Predict the 3D structure of the following.
Amino acid sequence: MALDEISGYMRQHSYDAWLACVILGAFCVILSCIVSAITMYRHYRHWHSPIIQKYSIRIIVMIPVYAVDSYMSLIWKDFAFYIDVVRDTYEAYVLYCFFALLIELAGGEETLIEQLEEKPQMKFLMPFCCFHIKPGRIFLHRCRQFILQYVFVKLILTFVTFITQVTGTYHSGNWSPKYGYLWVTIVYNLSITISLYFLVQFYEATKDILAAYKPLSKFMCVKTIVFFTFWQGIIISGFSSIGLITEGEHWSVEEISNFIESFLICVEMLPLAIAHSSTFGWRAYGELVPKDGRKSDIRQGLVQSLDFRDVMYDTKTAVKMGPSRNVDVGGFLTLNRTEQMSRVIKQDWLQKRGEDIIKKWKQRYFMLISEPLGLVFFKQNPFLQAEGVPLKARGFIPLSAVEEVISKDRKNDTEFVVITASRKWHMLSETTVQRDDWLDAIRTQQVDVRM
């Protein structure tokens, strides 16, 4: 039945239509909640991989939240707008849980970073396919930032929407720039597009790493709820704007639009609950959740799945401009200052081109050290710091991993490139003499290593 037919029927038979939708909606909501409850119960009874399973449960809970919230909107149409605030808030949280789940399925953040850094540069997706980025620590951090920005934007927009609705300046479905609906929709659309773009970019970089866990099906399940329901609401608002949905005797256009959207979500949650039980059920993770027949104490799983300290940690991580670094320089950083200086073959300031989305040159203090043999670099000259202050390296390039060191052929070009299997390190010196000194020092140590 088309939307205008539903709208017309509700105008003529508003109570009958409301009651029929309430009964059918209740049937779908109850079944979807039962399916989700069984899926979560099975997780709790086979609680063998707490981190992976707690994120799975938080995603599965989205089905009952959406279903119950939408059903309440069917019953209490006057409060539907405010009830949906709960749904919108949890929707943003689920996107964070899904991203965290994918990282854990890859073996955790550090393991994933190691696997990403072995990959070559990759193109951005359309329409930015002329730009490249190197998978690795910075790539993962930027994906986290751009995916999770939607969580913060969504929370802010939910608050703004609530305030404008209370003050009578929201006007859902009204595209006039005088009202809040247009501006909230624009910002929301921009935020959700950026989040989806980087989620797909992350999927492209990790789909082979996560292949055993069928990441595409998981991605589609989350995308269907978070993004499809949003566009479904926009389309219904569009229908009301062009007159396909008109007000009835006891129903405003906004109330009918909200009613249709809520009813559709109630019905849609049943097939999605079944899909989630297969995609995020305890059997979906292979050996990560052993199927040895052992039963777990349900209380243990409940306590761990309700521990939200990880959310606070990831929030703090996401708001940092750069990723945290755990650089292994083989004990060099813990030596006393005299022993450190005795291992330095060459040191000086160089510029290094980053791997970030915007590849700008950054000033770094480089050292070529003998043990472990390689290039270590810092943000500041570490030997100018007070004795006893722990050194914090920004990176380390072991010479055993270096395949080639080349310089540009152009005259007066002071750039040189250190090439490893995983990436190219672009360095820029102040003069050609300084460049040649660095090239000679690195190549000499390479020869000694190979001999």
Remarks:
- The chain has a mean pLDDT of 79.
- DSSP finds 14 helices and nine strands in the chain.
- The CA atoms of residues 26 and 411 lie 76 Å apart.
- The first strand starts at residue 122 and ends at 123.
